[in-house]
Design brief:
This protein is α+β, with helices and mostly antiparallel strands. It folds into two domains: 9-172, Creatinase/prolidase N-terminal domain (Creatine Amidinohydrolase, Chain A, domain 1, 3-Layer(aba) Sandwich); 175-437, Alpha-Beta Complex (Creatine Amidinohydrolase), CATH 3.90.230.10. Helices cover 36% and strands 16% of the residues. The chain has helices at residues 9-19, 49-55, 83-89, 94-102, 113-120, 135-151, 165-173, 178-201, 208-221, 284-302, 310-328, 335-340, 431-437, and strands spanning 25-30, 36-38, 41-42, 63-66, 74-78, 106-109, 126-128, 161-163, 232-235, 256-261, 264-265, 268-269, 272-277, 382-385, 388-391, 405-408, 411-415, 420-422. The protein has a six-stranded mixed beta sheet with strand order 6-5-4-1-7-8, sandwiched between helices. A three-stranded antiparallel beta sheet has the order 9-10-13. A hairpin with a 4-residue loop joins β17 and β18. It starts with 8 loop residues before the first helix and ends with a helix. Bound molecules: manganese (II) ion (MN).
Length: 441
């Protein structure tokens, strides 16, 4: 039985903050459908982030209907109690249990969604709902909209207008509250500690998969329910594949090892990347590239403070990494021309970072809506800073000694009133510190 693992006021406070932003409107947020893994086995289930954010409720086949200022204000639809199904699949709260345990004003069986929602949406000015996440709920919402329109008779009124719920909630989630930060800090701490354990166990001959397993074990031991995304455990040239997912090769002495992994704490996740030598000692060439990337990462982090445009970090990252590529002789020509022609993207094809929170690539607008102007960062925002350079082993245009080197260094940065806080400071990244830890168990 999974009661909300956090104090319920966290969720009701979020609904309160949301209410201020949507007066006169209603909001519907639904659980994701369960996904078949094979035959009669499902993928492990994780609640839709927004539904969890507003309720703390983790069962599939559940929907929140929120009507600020009306009574009842929070309405949910959940699976009925079912002794036989619960024997097979586990406990269900049922409507009554959900009302009591989650402090929701009124809870109905999921089967009554269409009927009750059609009644409950009469008189609201507009509806926030995100289509295309759960097709069966989409169909029901369409029926509801049609039913509402029919109930208006010959008034000439059109359909209830629908706005994107995820965009509204994204803007709420992009600035973290103290309650959010408590969870995110813990997720970052757990993730950093597990990275250290992986470093300690790294040695030539060990399989990438074993170390992935160790990461998951070490985070589970610290109370994490799951990874925030599929971890990347990439030895040698595998690191030059950005989203390397196989994690099944043996690590070789002389290679670098790139680990991009993070774990959740109460639905918030860390997102850390570290790169270090399998045998515990950087070669001169590896150290040269590594120090170059590390210096850039620190420079970018030092630049973080409220008011700076998010876009500035992308531009600065591209410029600094292009300088490094020129220094290493990976590219030649004028920096400005290279960037204009996007030639630097050959060795640095991704962005400098992204918002982080309950989703690893978290919600929130990077540009001001409609005007498409870059957005200044604000106190309470959290994002990653993750410069990298990836030189494929078969790239004959660069000096042999750099081929097969893929390096990324990623930390999770909170914008504070005057600057920033590195939430993942616990994971070592200085060469001397790494060399002390690698293979030390
Ligand atoms: Mn990332």
């Amino acid at each position: 039985m999974r009661k909300p693992s956090e104090h319920l006021s966290l969720f009701s406070d979020r609904r309160k903050r949301l209410a201020d932003k949507m007066s006169g409107s209603a909001l519907i947020v639904a659980a994701h459908p369960e996904m078949i893994r094979n035959h009669d086995v499902h993928h492990s289930y994780r609640q839709d982030t927004n539904l969890y954010y507003l309720t703390g409720f983790e069962e599939p086949e559940s929907i929140l209907l929120f009507r600020p200022g009306m009574t009842p204000e929070s309405i949910m639809f959940v699976r009925k109690k079912n002794r036989e199904r619960e024997t097979w699949d586990g406990f269900r709260f049922g409507p009554e249990g959900t009302e009591q345990e989650f402090k929701i004003d009124k809870v109905y069986p999921i089967e009554e969604f269409e009927k009750v929602a059609t009644e409950s949406l009469k008189g609201v000015e507009s509806l926030y709902y995100r289509f295309y996440k759960n097709p069966s709920v989409d169909a029901k919402v369409q029926n509801i909209l049609e039913g509402l329109s029919r109930s208006q008779g010959r008034t000439g009124y059109g359909l209830l207008s629908v706005h994107d719920a995820d965009e509204l909630l994204g803007e709420l989630r992009v600035v973290k509250t103290d309650g959010d930060l408590k969870n995110l800090r813990r997720a970052c701490e757990i993730s950093a500690e597990a990275h250290i354990e992986v470093m300690r166990a790294t040695k030539p001959g060990i399989n990438e998969r074993e170390l992935h397993g160790l990461f998951i074990y070490e985070t589970a031991k610290r109370g994490s329910a799951r990874e925030g995304y599929g971890g990347i455990f990439a030895g040698g040239n595998n690191a030059t594949t950005l989203h390397y997912v196989f994690n099944d090769q043996n690590l070789k002495s002389g290679d670098l090892f790139l680990v991009d992994a993070g774990a959740e704490s109460n639905y918030f996740t860390g997102d850390i990347t570290r790169t270090y030598p399998v045998n515990g000692k950087f070669t001169d060439d590896q150290a040269e590239v590594y120090e170059g990337v590390l210096k850039i990462q620190k420079k970018l982090i030092d630049h973080v403070k409220p008011g700076v445009l998010f876009q500035e970090f992308h531009d600065m990252g591209a410029a600094l990494l292009t300088d490094l590529m020129l220094e290493l002789g990976l590219l030649s020509g004028r920096k400005e021309d290279i960037i204009k022609a996007n030639e630097h993207r050959k060795y640095y094809p991704h962005g400098i970072g992204h918002f982080l929170g309950m989703d690893v690539h978290d919600a929130g607008l990077y540009f001001k809506k409609n005007v498409k102007e870059p957005r200044p960062i604000e106190e309470g925002m959290v994002f990653t800073i993750e410069p990298g350079i990836y030189i494929p082993a078969d790239d004959n245009s660069v000096a042999k000694n750099y081929r097969g080197i893929g390096i990324r260094i990623e930390d999770n940065i909170l914008v504070t009133a005057k600057g920033s806080e590195n939430m993942t400071f616990k994971a070592p990244k200085e060469i001397a510190d790494l060399e002390k830890v690698i293979g030390s168990n």
